[in-house]
Amino acid sequence: MTQIQSNSHKNTAFKLSEQVKATLHTKGYSFLFNYSDYEYYKKQAKRAFNKAQAIADLFIQDNTTQKSDYNGYIF
Description:
By secondary structure, the protein is an all-alpha fold. Helices cover 45% and strands 0% of the residues.
């Protein structure tokens, strides 16, 4: 008898919410993410080609007063 292994832990990177979090993190706005706004922006970006990017852009556009995490760093 063989055991069935679950690969559900491998599917998290393909979730749209995880892609949005990753996009916000690379841009330095990871603190903006919350699920209530995510659901709202998801409905607005349902026709977008790249939904994760469109939702991340909506997060950033609606929070223009917030500074990026990278704002204090000197490059």
